[in-house]
Amino acid sequence: MDYFVRHRTTYRYVQDVTQSWHLAHLRLRDTQHQSVTSSEVTMNLEPANLASRTDYFGNPVEWFAFDEPHTLLDILAESRVTVNRPPQRASRESLTHEEVRARLENPPDAEARDAVQYIFDSPMTGFESDIASYAIESFPPRRPILAGAAELMTRIHRDFRYDTTVTDATTPVDQVFEIRAGVCQDLAHVAIAAMRSLGLPARYVSGYLLTQPPPGKTRLLGADASHAWFSVWAPPFGWVDLDPTNDLIVGDAHVTSSWGRDYGDVAPVAGIILGGHDHVVDVGVDVIPA
Amino acid sequence: MSNTELAVPVMPHHAGASRFDELRGPDGMVRTHWRAFARTLTQLSPEEYERRQAAARATVQDNGVTYNVYDDRGGEARPWELDIVPFILSSADWKHIEAAVIQRATLTDLLLRDLYGPQKLLSGNVLPAHLVIGHPQFLRPLCGVAPAGGAHVHLYSADLARSPDGSWRVMASRADAPGGLGYALENRLVVSQTFPENFADMRVARLAAFFNAYRESVLGLGQSRRDRAVLMTPGPYNESYFEHVYLAHYLGLTLVQGDDLAVRGGEVFLKTLTGLERVSAIFRRVDSDFCDPLEFRGDSALGVPGLAEAVRAGGVVMANALGGGVVESPAMDAYLPAVCRALLGEELKIPDIATIWCGTEWGRKEAMARMNSSILRHAFDARPLFSRKSSARLGADLTADERARIESQLKHRGETLVMQEISPLGLAPVFEEGHFGARPVSLRVFAAWTPQGWTVMPGGLTRVAADDSIRALSMQSGASSKDAWVLSATPVDTFSLLTNGGKTLEIKRQGESAPSRAMDNLFWLGRYAERTENFVRILRAVVSRMSDEPAAALDVARRLLVPYSHASDSPIEDIADEHDLARELQIQIYSTRHSRSLQQLLSRVEQAAWSVRDRISLDTWRTIHALTLIDAPPEEDGEFEPGVARFYLDGLVRRSAALAGLAAENMTRGPNWLFLELGRRCERAHHLAWLVRQTVGQPDARETEQMRILLEIADSAMTYRSRYLNVFQLVPFIDLLLLDEHNPRSCAFQLAAIDAHLRELPRITLAQRSDVPRTLVHEMRAAIANANPARLAFCEHGMRPGVLELADTVTSGTTLLSDALAGAYFQHASRSRTGAAGY
After folding, report:
1. pLDDT of B166-212, one tens digit each?
2. Is the ipTM of this complex over 0.90?
């Protein structure tokens, strides 16, 4: 599938922002199943400094700063991408979770070694509550890891309510786990924390989802949302993406932007501002089949 | 003399093992390197010894040496504990330690170079990747970034402990932002003065050359020696703030907090009164992950947004480079011998305490087998053992439930645990409660990077356990400290940092730059100090009249204690009788909880001073500290005793005067003095105008009495009497307190002084050139110059409109002036995070 993705972020500040610094994960990355034709970020202001780089996880990232007073910052990312995921895996053919643990304990290659970082708590997935007891129900002895992860995803979809009013970008996993509700970011974090509570590798994926329009209606621009899900390392298939918000193994309707240990590693736009007093953010995302 | 005269009791043994005795050999004889000092100790009477210990304690307190202890109720600064008996090391012992610490510092730098570079240790399976990419202090944004100047580590520390067999072990090491150097230096200063003869005779190695090497090596890496070098502290609330102040002073660095710095175009700048000054080197005492809220911990208020980018751009030398925390984990200890063989081709000269990482099958089996005799802790928990929030648990102490949880954690997440064996620490002599004893100690030693190789400070910070348990060695849990004396086989190098090695200094008439935050704090220090004196004088005027002139006391209290009147349930204007007044005063003077009490005000003075501790003299600091001391503070709900209160308030008036005098006579006329003075003058002008407004502005039958009391509060009674004898009239009174530029206690005098000071301020930025402050002062001065005595005296409906108008002009004018100065010179734009939730 070919897509055109437009992601627009607008900050309006009540007072002048005298200086600001930003980190943006807005361009799309190439993956095994996705090739990016073009991906560009433009802004309404000329930054005093701008650096485009690839971060530790291989995601494209922009660092930029402004040092002239401003009250409006408009960031537009536009990308063209082809997604071509392989047909769904037979989850019973993945290694068992015990075999995955053993492989991570003595990583035989660079891929396994890289996966090691995803078994540890990260800043936004640390937890105190007994998530392990919740998780272990899906991982009886010798179960293939992908089968366990898929069941965990289905249970989270069933047990947690999708609700955009109860959490924000910094809500801790423990709280989401307690109230059993949140948005896609929260559900992904719960799934990741659950996997890691058993020492199993899971990472956070940030991206976009094509929302199918109801039959007979035209697509509403801006109705599609920036999205997030999680991914498990399931040799021999490598990383397999699972979307607990929609209870599905990720297919061609998902466009990947970036991945990391949690939301904090790949937040679409993070910023520190001086002044400004208060601000509002508007985000609009369009994912249009091209 | 006999070697057995010094009675060192044998401590109860820990876990059945014996301990190393630093003082005596196995034969019971005092060890050679202790003999000279032991002789002194046996010659001193217990009284003399007690006297020296008390003198040392007084010096420590006077110097404001504290270690802030955090607990759930907030924070508390407590005096640094110092035992004056030094910890003595023979030159043979030291040679071994020195070589070992150099080896470890070298190794640590190479290790970091690999972890943030090619990671060959990971791909070559020398080091499990878990310990690095699983560590929360592994700062991914800095991977592939070579630090400016090349070195990752400029200062390294290791905590050494002596095993029962006399060999050394490393309990913890630091490569991110090692602490303790300043305390070690302070301990040395005090103890060398406590035993001056021994210090001179025993060839104790000196510390100054080490500090010089550390400073010069870092500065030498900066692009230009003319740029600023700063010491970055988390701020006055950090547990080690004292040492940051102390080190900045000793090393000649500007003390800054994150807010004082700004990153522009890949370079770091210091925000000063006169604009931005380039910073070439940062001596860092803020943990790496707090240093840039954009790329590391977003919740950090201590850092500088963009600092990581400046580091990537090579624009600033960080000492130490960011990211060193990744090698500080206990789990790393388990692999350091292998890393040492891989990187240096050597064995560790001093190994770490026995550590097993539970991320392997073998490690988990060992841990299960040894659990009862060991400590379990989180693999990445580098906090001192058993300090606050430490994850360490004694295996033997675990309940059945906890044990089950640990076993489950070992099964599923073994890589997050380590097991460590702790052997009992060696014993060193201490003096406590009037006699000698022995306590377990550890020694923190420091190494500094230089272009010629590592150099080790010949000495260190010796820490004394609070008791015999292994839980007792955290400074937070009440332990004490000692100086460490390294005996030299040859005459010692008496190089001093203070003599500059014979180089001729250029004459400078200006000190260091003036960061705007520090100027802000000095301004408020001036205001609070003056406010304290004003409040104390009003209180004293009330208290001293309570027995002889109760009606006058009540009247003054009702009129002048208004701003402080929320201490009791009813407004102070409604106070009915002396009994109520006494209750009110008890709270206003002694309450530590009430937000407008004298005690609260005093603590604000101390806090403001503490935050600019690097900019005020030791004597000034001591005077301010003395303001907050109160012997046996009465209970808030206790009986009010006017005599006691009077005595206390008199003391405060004297100490306030001493403080003002020190500032007037001893401070160089630079920005520090200027802002302190501006604060004081603003506050006093405001206060005088307000006093007049509250009394003769709304006159009644007691006016004559009020004038008399007001002159006493404003310390102008003598002047008035010399001019007008005992005849109290409104116009001369107003003239003296408001209009007379020759009276240092008049409004006019304050405004003239402010006017003169404002001319000294830089006028560089747009806000500074706008001249709002001067316009405001000129308006106030004009109002005073044009005041018409006849109009001032005019009275109708119990008011003097002329007096009220003039007083209001000054009170509102000074308030606006304070804001205008803040806008032009302090300008802290508040910093916030912006997210982008898009769901």
Report:
1. 999 999 999 999 999 999 999 999 999 999 988 988 999 999 999 99
2. yes
B645 and B688 part of one domain: no
Q: B382 to chain A nearest CA, in Å?
A: 17
Going by C-beta distance under 8 Å and a sequence separation of 6 or more, which residues neighbour residue B345? none
**In sequence order, what are the beta bridge partners of A82?**
A2, A35
Looking at the fold, whether B299 and B166 belong to one and the same domain comes out as: yes
pLDDT for res B470: 62
Q: Which residue of A has its CA nearest to B139?
A: A56
- Report pLDDT digits (tens) over B557-577: 888 887 555 555 556 677 778
**Global confidence as pTM:** 0.87
Concatenating the DSSP letter of every residue in B763-814 gives --SHHHHT-HHHHHHHHHHHHHHT--HHHHH--BTTB-HHHHHHHHHHHHHH
For residue B799, the cross-strand partners are B796
- B70 has a pLDDT exceeding 90: no
At residue B537, what is the residue type? R
Contacts of A273 in chain B (CB under 8 A): 831-834
Tell me, yes or no, whether B409 and B533 share the same domain: no
Please count the residues of chain A: 290
How many beta carbons lie within 10 A of that of residue B373, not counting itself? 13
Q: Is the pLDDT of residue B503 over 60?
A: no
Q: Per the structure block, which two tokens stand in for B222?
A: 């900066």
B588, pLDDT greater than 70: yes
Q: For residue B239, what pLDDT band results from cuts at 50, 70 and 90?
A: confident
- Residue range(s) defining the domain that contains residue A60: 2-84+267-289
Tell me the nearest-neighbour CA distance from A83 into chain B, angstroms: 22
Q: Is A276 exposed, middle or buried (0-12, 13-18, 19+ CB in 10 A)?
A: buried
Interval A152-167: pLDDT, tens: 999 999 999 998 889 8
**Could you give the CA distance from residue A189 to residue A192 in angstroms, rounded to a whole number?**
5
Please name the amino acid found at residue A201. P
Task: State the average pLDDT over residues B372-393.
Answer: 86
Residues B314, B449, single domain; the answer is yes
Question: In whole numbers, what is the pLDDT of chain B averaged over residues?
Answer: 87
Residue A215 reports pLDDT greater than 90: no
* Residues of chain A contacting residue B137, judged by C-beta atoms under 8 Å apart: none
d(CA B14, CA B372): 15
Answer whether B134 sits within 8 Å of A23, measured CB to CB: no
Q: Is A162 on the interface with B (CB under 8 A)?
A: no
- B122 CB neighbours in chain A (<8 A) are 113
Among B141, B297, B832, whose Cβ lies nearest the Cβ of A276?
Answer: B832
Angle (CA) B194-B199-B201 rounded to 5° is 135
Q: How many domains does chain A have?
A: 2
Question: What CATH number is given to the structural domain containing A163?
Answer: 3.10.620.30
Judge whether B683 and B527 are in contact, CB under 8 Å.
Answer: yes
The confidence score (pLDDT) of residue A271 equals: 92
Tell me the two tokens of residue B332: 């790393």
B484-488, B629-633, B708-712: segment of lowest average pLDDT: B629-633
**Nearest in space to A99 (alpha carbons), one of A276, A228, A235, A2:** A235
Segments forming the whole domain that contains residue B190: 87-329+424-490
Non-local CB neighbours of B779 within 8 Å, separated by 6+ positions: B809, B813
* Average of per-residue pLDDT across B695-717: 90
Q: What is the domain count for chain B?
A: 4
Task: Find, in chain A, the residue whose alpha carbon is nearest to that of B836.
Answer: A269
**DSSP 8-class letter at B414:** G
Specify whether B286 is located in the same domain as B410.
no
* pLDDT at residue number B469: 67
> Where are the strands (E) in B136-257, listed by range?
155-162, 168-174, 228-232, 254-256
Whether residues B213 and B303 fall in one domain = yes
Residues A201 and A275 placed together within one structural domain of the fold = no
